[in-house]
């Protein structure tokens, strides 16, 4: 007598569908648990980070002991968090101590508009709402600081800013009138970028000037340039 073997029962379509749904549910739950765990770890790490401290003390790689800002990654993160960058033009630290290359240009684009304090011999010039500035180094020393102020989008705003500084910087009404005439002429020459500057002035131990640029598309911008 020959023995017979009963083949295993195949699951019905409904059973297979139910099993797939259970598997999908477990996968979804697992993914959610992993995400929640990662979020929890991130929140814990953030709660212990200087980014959320009310008045964090800078580390040596974030800021010099005398308050000068550093411009490598750690320093940039710190002054973006503080919304304040400090540059000493008259007596700067060596470029290497500031996180800058010994020679070259270092443009800075800030995460948020912030204040740039420019240290002179006796006082500080403050520029608020700055979104970009640049540092030029030569021979491991700061050679120039260029600040693009908040008033740098329309000629009316630029002119008002220049007029407010004219008495301190020694610019005469005729200097400003001559600049306005040149800006108007540059704006009418389409497709040609031009830069005009006011006379250099001695400002608290620094040499400072203002440059107005009209680019090829007719956009206008203002930069203040400081040199030791």
Task: Give a description of the structure.
The chain is of the alpha+beta class. The chain has three domains: 15-54; 62-148, no CATH class; 155-227, no CATH class. The protein has four helices and eight strands, in the order H-H-E-E-E-E-H-H-E-E-E-E. Strands 1, 2, 3, 4, 5, 6, 7 and 8 form an eight-stranded mixed β-sheet that branches. The chain is elongated, with a radius of gyration of 30 Å. The protein starts with 12 loop residues before the first helix and ends with a strand. The model is unreliable at 43-51 (pLDDT under 50).
Q: Which terms would index this structure?
A:
8 strands; 8-stranded mixed beta sheet; single chain; elongated; alpha+beta; 228 residues; 33% helix
Write the layout of secondary structure elements.
Elements: H1 13-47, H2 73-82, E1 84-88, E2 104-119, E3 124-138, E4 141-148, H3 155-169, H4 173-188, E5 194-197, E6 201-203, E7 206-214, E8 220-227
Parallel strand pairs: 1-2
Antiparallel strand pairs: 2-3, 3-4, 4-8, 5-7, 6-7, 7-8
Summarize the main sheet: 8 strands, mixed
How much of the sequence lies in strands comes to 25-35%
* Poorly predicted sequence stretches spanning 5 or more consecutive residues: 43-51
Helix content: 25-40%
Radius of gyration: 30 Å
How many independent structural domains? 3
Shape: elongated
Q: Would you tell me the structural class of the helices and strands?
A: alpha+beta
Provide the residue-averaged pLDDT: 85
- Distinct helical segment count: 4
How many DSSP E strands?
Answer: 8
Order of helix and strand elements from N to C terminus? HHEEEEHHEEEE
The separation of the N and C termini measures 110 Å
């Amino acid at each position: 007598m020959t023995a017979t073997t009963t083949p295993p029962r195949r699951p019905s379509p409904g059973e297979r569908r139910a099993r797939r749904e259970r598997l999908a549910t477990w996968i979804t739950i697992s993914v959610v648990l992993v995400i929640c765990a990662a979020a929890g770890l991130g929140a814990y790490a953030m709660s212990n980070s200087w980014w959320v401290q009310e008045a964090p003390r800078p580390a040596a790689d974030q800021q010099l002991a005398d308050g000068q800002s550093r411009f490598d990654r750690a320093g940039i993160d710190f002054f973006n968090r503080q919304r304040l960058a400090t540059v000493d033009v008259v007596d700067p630290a060596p470029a290497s101590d500031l996180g800058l290359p010994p020679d070259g240009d270092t443009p800075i684009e800030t995460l948020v508009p912030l204040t740039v304090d420019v240290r002179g011999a006796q006082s500080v010039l403050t520029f608020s709402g700055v979104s970009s500035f640049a540092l030029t180094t030569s021979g491991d020393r700061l050679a120039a600081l260029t600040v693009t102020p908040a008033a740098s989008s329309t000629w009316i705003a630029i002119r008002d800013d220049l007029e407010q500084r004219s008495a301190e910087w020694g610019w005469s009404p005729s200097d400003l009138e001559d600049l306005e005439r040149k800006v108007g002429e540059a704006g009418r020459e389409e497709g040609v970028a031009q830069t005009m500057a006011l006379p250099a002035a001695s400002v608290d131990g620094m040499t400072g000037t203002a440059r107005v640029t009209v680019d090829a598309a007719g956009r206008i911008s203002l930069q203040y340039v400081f040199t030791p």
